[in-house]
User: Which sequence fits this backbone?
């Protein structure tokens, strides 16, 4: 897929909106607990790239170890799921307000989606990243 | 072979009278199943963490503000979770291809690989089931029998957590035991 300059600008805007939502959800109530969400979503693409490199997924002649890949997928699922679960927990025990919960969740998914789309668009040389 | 079955669908090593359907999800399904299993694993842990957070921030009822909260989540509530997690790790680490293999060791003295793999699988499943039963025990003995019905959510979250781990291990099993056709296509 061709990625033009417009796509980059739009992606950057979406990323900025996502981070703004997360920071606002903390700053408006002067309660910085929802910032954990940003860390989980920023870390979420990491296991797949690390495990993909470990498994040697680009070298098909060697025996590529799918266990590494599966472990990376598992960790990604764990991180994304905790990104949604942490604000809900904080809301449930009344540590943060309701709007802060929804704002941090929306902001975190925007950040994660941006990273996914960016990686999908600009990794044409590699066959498939599969986040 | 004098059975009336067509040759293609007859597996001489099968042990069931009927052919059980073999789930084959393919490469993409394998990936999605692994993602789902990981998500469910974390979600079930956060269910118990949710109950612990609520318990540690619990306030006495507003009409009696000087009462103490009668029951809290303690280490007892986490023991079933520890057992379930150990069982989960044991099952997921196991290489499933050895469960049905007939080949024996290269040394041939320690018994076949399949029987050892089955023993490990038995331990894992026993730990998982023990964790689930333990969570039910905690729910009944700690919350329902003494009459803390207002705090039954703590026990219910415990049961949900252990059930979620079981379900997640089931999904991971199905996803991982589907054939690696995707992989073969790449290697050829």
Assistant:
């Amino acid at each position: 897929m061709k990625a033009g300059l417009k796509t980059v600008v739009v992606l950057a805007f979406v990323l900025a909106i996502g981070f703004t939502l997360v920071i606002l959800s903390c700053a408006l109530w002067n309660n910085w607990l929802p910032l954990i969400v940003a860390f989980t979503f920023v870390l979420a693409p990491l296991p797949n790239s690390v495990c993909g490199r470990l498994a040697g997924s680009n070298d098909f002649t060697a025996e590529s170890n799918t266990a590494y890949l599966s472990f990376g997928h598992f960790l990604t699922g764990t991180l994304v799921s905790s990104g949604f679960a942490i604000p809900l927990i904080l809301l449930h025990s009344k540590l943060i307000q309701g709007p802060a919960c929804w704002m941090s969740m929306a902001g975190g998914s925007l950040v994660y989606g941006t990273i996914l789309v960016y990686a999908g668009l600009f990794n044409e040389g590699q066959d498939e990243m599969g986040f | 072979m004098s059975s009336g079955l067509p040759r293609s669908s007859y597996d001489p090593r099968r042990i069931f009278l009927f052919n059980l359907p073999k789930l084959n999800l393919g490469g993409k399904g394998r990936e999605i199943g692994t993602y789902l299993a990981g998500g469910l694993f974390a979600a079930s842990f956060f269910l118990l963490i949710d109950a612990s957070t609520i318990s540690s921030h619990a306030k006495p009822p507003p009409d009696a503000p000087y009462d103490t909260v009668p029951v809290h989540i303690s280490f007892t509530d986490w023991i079933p979770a520890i057992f379930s997690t150990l069982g989960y790790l044991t099952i997921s680490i196991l290489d499933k291809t050895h469960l049905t293999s007939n080949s024996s060791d290269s040394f041939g003295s320690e018994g076949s690989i399949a029987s050892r793999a089955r023993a490990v699988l038995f331990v894992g499943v026993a730990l998982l089931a023990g964790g689930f039963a333990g969570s039910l025990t905690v729910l009944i003995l700690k919350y329902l029998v003494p009459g803390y019905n207002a705090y039954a959510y703590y026990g219910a979250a415990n049961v949900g957590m252990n059930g979620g781990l079981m379900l997640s291990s089931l999904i991971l099993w199905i996803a991982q035991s589907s054939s690696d056709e995707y992989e073969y296509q790449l290697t050829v």
Q: What stands out?
A: The interface with chain B takes residues 60-61, 64, 66, 70, 73-82, 85-86, 88-90, 92-95, 130 of chain A (CB under 8 Å). The two ends of chain A are 17 Å apart (CA to CA). Residues 5-122 of chain A form one domain.
